[in-house]
């Protein structure tokens, strides 16, 4: 790894096979945009957290296909990692949350697949993308050169190479079909503008003099008098903690109010729009990240369904496909699935209404519903539900 690679990686820039040309860089505002600076924006942090934690909260199962259908393969090594944790340091939700968050911020999430002598997976070790340099081999396969810069495995700086079949590689949308490209690099100006607005807002409070205005005197102040005046104003009135303090004037000095507020400068309105832009960048409905500017109860419910269907659903499909290809054996009849019905856990009425419809139409049995809810089966639960009796025709009495 070159010196340029090492320096750039320490500042959060991702490395790609073609160099640094596609990386998050400097926005027109002059602000650097990378995974670290972007997460200083609460909207970016909220979007990444919302997507990654939602997927991490979903139940995951390894299914085995059979002649009579499919069953959960609880003895499979991958299923054991889901239950016990993929490595000694992370639980399964921690690992999935890290993998998805890395992909959202850097365009790629990588984990080493550790196997035993029989080839069964025994560990999934997270590898920060900052440590990785990717090479395309003459065979057409990818090689991942990992230089451990810091972490629990020690900061030895030694280089080791992992081949394509030895890693689990989750990608965001790719330009070359090989590596993902981060959304921060695709929308550098959007994020850079948000950083600039946040900095401007902070500077307004840090450097503001309240009440703001102009001091006027007859004649000209000497350099010492001007210095004393500036220092006195800075000591007494600069900063949010000194907001509203009384300004004492002397020597014929006059104060002229200058009304300029964040609203007049459109800073606050611009920051609100920046939140919407970043939510759009990550395809997260604004109410999911606590932006209730245009919120009603109805569109909040719709936003939750939209989030599950169009944001979480595609990411879950990518995860399932990558686990099936990278971790499960080729030609295996097993598959990895995340249970999206977990999103219904918080909607009590909708969940039980769905169970009722499933039982009534012989899609699920009552004991299967109890199993879904985490309850033990009961023999009497398998009795068929009572069928509504057909209405009887009214009896017509013959005329006398």
Automatic annotation (TrEMBL):
<dbReference type="InterPro" id="IPR006944">
    <property type="entry name" value="Phage/GTA_portal"/>
</dbReference>
<feature type="compositionally biased region" description="Basic and acidic residues">
    <location>
        <begin position="374"/>
        <end position="383"/>
    </location>
</feature>
<protein>
    <submittedName>
        <fullName>Putative Phage portal protein, HK97 family</fullName>
    </submittedName>
</protein>
<dbReference type="Pfam" id="PF04860">
    <property type="entry name" value="Phage_portal"/>
</dbReference>
<feature type="region of interest" description="Disordered">
    <location>
        <begin position="374"/>
        <end position="400"/>
    </location>
</feature>
<dbReference type="InterPro" id="IPR006427">
    <property type="entry name" value="Portal_HK97"/>
</dbReference>
